[in-house]
DNA sequence: AATGCGGGGAT
DNA sequence: ATCCCAGCATT
């Protein structure tokens, strides 16, 4: 960071932001509490997730798992079920493990120090800073994508936000404007970044910091933040066999080493003796952020009771019906096929 | 230091 | 189509 920035006083910016936040804070369900459990859960849910998308999941999660103990004692599959459709499923696995960490290592009391919070599974520097500042008066900026965008514009700083050192770099910048109330400041930066200092078409005319914003005064808002690396989606072909008879069908659970960690799915392969029962095949295209999926779904209607019984007794698949499938978390593109057996059959 | 991981909404 | 969102773990 240049010397001029270090030597100047930008503290009035943080204070202005707090004044704006007092009036313009979004009314969100986790804004009326300092319960570290709820703040922690909301931070995990909203990682890489927009408020509108995750709000229902957050509310359902808190209702089903109202405290650390309830979460720690729950089955992993039930936690995964509550995460259904939200994406980045390692978050659900880690949040469950972290709850058990809190029970075992902290006697069920949420740790109140940044360094301890950081030890929880799935909690990184951002989340630890957020929980610490919001719940325990910690003084650490919770640097996220909003910080990158707001600070890069405020200082017309072209530091590449896709650089690995961006987190440390923008943490330093944040300290230049950091006020006393860091918890409110962190949340204010999120609201400003979401409502005013948006990625596209920011509402600079309404921004409480527009008189302090260098990019705005230079009319170069659109040039910040600088991000060089682009996400590239690769093609991936999958095959699933919807093997069914009399309203029952076969599923299995995925591993935790690829996409859709530990979610349930139809068998990706079948034994040759089921080939005669393939009635139709349908291809579904589905776009993920990192993958362009092409999924072939084979409709395998097993007409022979003998072969069905042989098959389901021999192997490792789970036999379920519509009701049972609703108790398991499925990948989004497979949801249509399990909503109801009749619907799935008709789709195929 | 670089890469993989969902899904949806805005543009 | 492209971007990006209250990031993190793994390599």
UniProtKB/TrEMBL annotation:
Keywords: 4Fe-4S, DNA damage, DNA repair, Glycosidase, Hydrolase, Iron, Iron-sulfur, Metal-binding. It is an enzyme of class 3 (hydrolase). One of its GO terms (biological process) is base-excision repair. SMART domains: ENDO3c (SM00478), FES (SM00525). Residues 45-195 form the HhH-GPD domain. CDD domains: ENDO3c. Its EC number is 3.2.2.31. GO terms for molecular function: 4 iron, 4 sulfur cluster binding; 8-oxo-7,8-dihydroguanine DNA N-glycosylase activity; adenine/guanine mispair binding; metal ion binding; oxidized purine DNA binding; purine-specific mismatch base pair DNA N-glycosylase activity. Adenine glycosylase active on G-A mispairs. MutY also corrects error-prone DNA synthesis past GO lesions which are due to the oxidatively damaged form of guanine: 7,8-dihydro-8-oxoguanine (8-oxo-dGTP). This is Adenine DNA glycosylase.
């Amino acid at each position: 960071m240049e010397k001029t920035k270090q030597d100047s006083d930008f503290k009035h910016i943080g204070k202005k932001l707090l004044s704006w936040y007092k009036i313009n804070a979004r009314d969100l369900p986790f804004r009326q509490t300092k319960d570290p459990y709820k703040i922690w859960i909301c931070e995990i849910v909203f990682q890489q997730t927009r408020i509108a998308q995750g709000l229902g999941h957050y509310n359902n999660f808190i209702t089903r798992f109202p405290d650390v103990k309830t979460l720690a004692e729950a089955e992993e599959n039930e936690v995964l079920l509550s995460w259904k459709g939200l994406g980045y499923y390692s978050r659900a696995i880690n949040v469950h493990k972290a709850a058990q960490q809190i029970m075992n290592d902290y006697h069920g009391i949420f740790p109140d120090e940044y360094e301890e919070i950081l030890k929880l599974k799935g909690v990184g520097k951002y989340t630890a800073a957020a929980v610490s500042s919001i719940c325990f008066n910690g003084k650490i900026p919770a640097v996220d994508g909003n910080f990158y965008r707001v600070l890069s514009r405020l200082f017309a700083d072209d530091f590449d936000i896709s650089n690995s050192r961006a987190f440390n770099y923008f943490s330093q910048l944040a300290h230049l404007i950091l006020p006393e109330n860091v918890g409110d400041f962190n949340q204010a930066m999120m609201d400003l970044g979401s409502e005013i200092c948006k990625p596209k078409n920011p509402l600079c005319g309404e921004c409480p910091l527009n008189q302090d914003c260098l990019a705005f005064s230079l009319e170069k808002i659109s040039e910040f933040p600088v991000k060089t690396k682009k996400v590239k989606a690769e093609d991936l072909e999958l095959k699933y066999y919807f093997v069914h008879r009399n309203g029952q069908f076969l599923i299995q659970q995925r591993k935790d080493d690829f996409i859709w960690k530990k979610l349930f799915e139809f068998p990706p392969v079948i034994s040759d003796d089921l080939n005669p029962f393939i009635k139709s095949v349908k291809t579904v295209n589905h776009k993920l952020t990192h993958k362009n999926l092409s999924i072939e779904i084979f409709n395998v209607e097993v007409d022979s009771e003998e072969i069905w019984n042989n098959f389901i007794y021999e192997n490792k698949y789970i036999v379920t019906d519509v009701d049972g499938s609703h108790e398991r978390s499925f990948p989004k593109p497979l949801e249509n096929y399990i909503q109801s057996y009749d619907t799935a059959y008709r789709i195929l």
